[in-house]
Amino acid sequence: MKFFIFLSAAAFFVSTILSAPLEGQCGPNEVFLHCGSACEPSCEVPVIEICTLQCILDICQCANGFVRGPFGCVRFEECPPIVYGK
Hints:
The protein is of the alpha+beta class.
């Protein structure tokens, strides 16, 4: 039983490490952060006023001046029009 618990924990940690992006693997207009924000600015919410202090480990997030769009990080002016009330 102890071996099964150890094996499960080891598999979890290995899969977590392998699924995280590595420095240099971020997309255009993204930066790699060891401790990123849980509240990344987006086309829908470009200005974050309230956010948790949660640290998202090893993540690619939009560089300063860019927001998360439907296909990556873009300047807010390049965001597609948002249709409300679908």
